[in-house]
TrEMBL record:
Protein name: (Mediterranean fruit fly) hypothetical protein
GO molecular-function terms, A-Z: RNA binding; structural constituent of ribosome
Source organism phylogeny: Eukaryota, Metazoa, Ecdysozoa, Arthropoda, Hexapoda
Cellular component terms per the entry's GO annotation: cytosolic large ribosomal subunit
InterPro entries: Ribo_uL30_ferredoxin-like_sf, Ribosomal_uL30, Ribosomal_uL30_euk_arc
The organism of origin for this protein: Ceratitis capitata (Mediterranean fruit fly)
One GO term (biological process): maturation of LSU-rRNA from tricistronic rRNA transcript (SSU-rRNA, 5.8S rRNA, LSU-rRNA)
Amino acid sequence: MDKFAVPNKLPGKTVSVLAHRKRRILQDKATLEQKKALKTKRVASAKKHHKFKRPESFVMNYLKAERTAKRIKQTMKRTNLVDFNEPEKSNQKLILVMRHAGKKIFDETTNKIFNTLHMASRHNAVFLRNNKETQVLLKVIEPFVVYGYPTLSTIRELLFKRGFARINSRKTPIQSNAMVEEHLGDKGIICLEDIIHEIYTVGPNFDAVKEFLCSFMVLLNYTINILYTYI
């Protein structure tokens, strides 16, 4: 009779499997509830950020763009009086330009200039040739930028501390001289010191070096401290 007796308890292994299954079901339920709560939070956040805008805000944006367009038009009229064949008055060939204002700019011309100069966002800084063409562009974007003459130590500090290269349209840290030689070796530039020299002297390969480098991300106070003098 004993061998046909039904045990009073289920085998321990079966109990363990059922316990694990119950725990897993509870965990899946908790995870699902957590996902639903997160989705609800995201929807609420999206609605919060897409609040109704007052008509006055659109009018203000239009007026800002209109004022900027008038200022640019006046600047371009004065530019017509500039003789671009006249020798440069300043002996300084290089300037450092930093965008410190204009989180949202509603004038298309100003935005195009910033995009051309690789200064699409605030706190972008770039090295530019100090010539009449650059001066005209700076007059257009003057309310949004600060600029001046960088020293050799300024250039070296920016490159070593904040220098990035633009490789395959991606911002990449300059990790070695081998990287410099790979992309600028055909120009005779094989190390970071060569880049510094080319920028400081505004050499024949200045434009190639400028295209290789990304714009520098700096704060306004930092830029003011490192500039030698203002134009």
